[in-house]
Amino acid sequence: MTAQWHGYAHVANATGYVEVVTVREDSAAPSAETTVIRLLGLLPRHLRCVPEVAGDQVRLWIARDGATTDTDIRRAVRAVLADAALWGWAEQS
Which of 55, 73, 77, 91 falls 20 to 30 Å from 43 in CA-CA distance? Predict the structure, then answer.
């Protein structure tokens, strides 16, 4: 996986990305800074991500490609969030 930063405004308005927001649900869970590293390390290698950390939130913009649907991307994030290393974090509904 390659994290590529294009700038917040550029990515937030890009149609080629799926936005996924994760939030800390338990104050004893790891910080957002630790969590973003774990998320990026556990997501499938072919997903290109642009992360943003703010408070108790990690926002990921994950690039769409021809073979990966929005549902596939969200399913991959949910699978990663089930890992014990990300205990206390969940996808924001």
Answer: 55
| Signed CA dihedral, 29, 31, 34, 38: sign only | positive
Round to whole Å and give the CA distance between 16 and 38. Answer: 24
**Residues 11-55: pLDDT tens digits?**
555 678 999 999 999 999 999 999 999 999 999 999 999 999 999
- The encoded tokens of residue 59 equal 């926002």
Phi, psi of 63 (to 5 degrees): -65, 135
Burial 63-84, CB ≥16 within 10 A → b, else e: bbeeebeeebbeebbeebbeee
Q: Are 61 and 4 spatial neighbours (Cβ–Cβ below 8 Å)?
A: no
**H/E element holding 35?**
helix 32-42
